[in-house]
Design brief:
Layout lengths: L8 H11 L3 H19 L6 E9 L9 H8 L14 H5 L2 H8 L2 E7 L6 E7 H5 L4 H9 L2 E5 L6 E7 L2 H58 L9 H38 L3 E5 L12 H32 L1
Antiparallel strand pairs: 1-5, 1-6, 2-3, 4-5
Helix pairs in contact: 2-10, 5-7, 8-9
Length: 322
């Protein structure tokens, strides 16, 4: 097929200039801007996100029907709908947990730029963020955290994004560990109060039983057949001491049962964290989106340049001709 039937590149360029004046120059300027942006983005280090997922254990009050599901979807809770995971987001965003994360020492590797060498670092997160005080460090830490909770599935997702994949994983796992410690310790504190009180009362009743037993024993040593004694005072005193002794026995047995039940209740009150994902070690970067940045600036410069040229030709050039 003869090649003269196809227009040359110069002919296409000339035709493009005639149809859209200034577009060719704007495209070249946008291409240059894209190349410059691509070079600049190489000096932006990669970011890596590690995600931990937690599913709270189901409780007896869950499964209340479609009404509870509808309320949970709307972000509300029904009275009596005991959801142990409802406060997990607030716990993770509390100052106590964030300060513990900031004061924890981490060992990780990080690159200064895209193709830089990997440097080993051993420091606390507070030192890593390089903030003058703890308040600013917590604000900076929250920009690296994303804590979400699905109202339908109750699934809690903790996402940590930093410039080091190892650091992201360690922070995510540290948050899961702190959440587990906080939830268990607080639940144990509430649940064991009844058990501790019952144990104290049990010790007191053991002492009272010993006192009643000693008094009844001393009375029996001197009045073995008090029930058939002709003296009514002796019969009444013996009956009273025997009644007190049996009453202390029954009370001690009741407290012992209550103590065992309190220990079981304390054990059941401890929430169980079903950790689906403890925090993965990310391999692929989560950002920055270099291709999107390059295309964005390329289109921005091209469109802006073309628009300015059109304004110049349609406004300034006619005025100069006059």
């Amino acid at each position: 097929m003869p090649t003269e039937n196809f227009p040359s590149f110069a002919a296409l360029s000339a035709a493009l200039r005639r149809v859209w004046p200034g577009l060719w120059s704007s495209l070249r300027l946008g291409l240059i801007a894209g190349l410059v942006t691509a070079c600049i983005t190489l000096f932006i280090p990669n970011r890596y996100a590690s995600v931990a997922r937690i599913l709270p254990a189901p409780t007896q009050n869950q499964g209340m029907g479609s009404l509870a599901l509808l309320a949970a979807t709307a972000g509300a809770t029904l009275p009596g709908a005991d959801d142990p995971g409802a406060s997990y987001v607030d716990i993770l965003e509390s100052r106590t947990v964030l300060e513990a994360v900031l004061n924890t020492r981490y060992q990780f590797h990080q690159r200064a730029w895209r193709f830089g060498s990997s440097a080993s670092r051993d420091e606390t997160l507070f030192e890593y963020l390089d903030k003058p005080n703890m308040d600013l460090a917590m604000l900076a830490l929250k920009t690296h955290l994303s804590i979400t909770r699905d109202f339908k599935t109750k699934l809690l997702a903790i996402s940590v994004e930093t410039k080091s994949p190892e650091l992201s994983q360690q922070i995510a796992r540290r948050l899961v560990q702190l959440l587990d410690q906080f939830a268990v310790e607080k639940a144990r504190t509430r649940g064991t109060e009844k058990a501790v009180f019952t144990a104290e009362r049990l010790d007191e009743e053991r002492h009272a039983l010993d006192v009643a037993q000693d008094a009844f024993q001393k009375f029996l040593e001197m009045n073995r057949n008090y029930a058939t004694s002709p003296d009514p005072a002796i019969r009444l005193k013996g009956a009273r001491l025997e009644m007190e002794y049996h009453l202390q026995q029954q009370l001690l047995a009741t407290l012992a049962l209550n103590r065992e039940q309190a220990l079981l209740d304390a054990k059941n009150d401890i929430p169980v964290l079903n950790v689906l994902d403890p925090g993965n070690l990310p391999v692929d970067k989560s950002g920055p989106a270099r291709s999107f940045i390059v295309l964005f600036f390329m289109l921005l410069i091209t469109v802006t340049s073309y628009a300015l040229r059109q304004i110049h030709w349609r406004v300034v050039s006619p005025a100069e001709a006059e």
